[in-house]
Write a structure and sequence with these properties.
The protein has 66 residues and is an all-alpha fold. It has a domain of 41 residues. Helix 1 crosses helix 2. The longest helix has 23 residues. 0% of the residues are buried.
Amino acid sequence: MADERLVDAFVAQVRAAVDHEIEDEHLERIRKGIDDKLNQGATLRNHPLKNADEPFSVFHPYRNES
């Protein structure tokens, strides 16, 4: 689980950005989404990469079928 203070800070930013009250159910979904994204970022940062590692790409040749 991500740092609770960091999640609270992001939730506070979301609440400040909207001009209406957010329902508790929606606020919990927002909090869970923020927590999930922070955990995904931590997972990516903890995965060691070498300088030679390249991003994955897929080649799709163009075929004009008209």
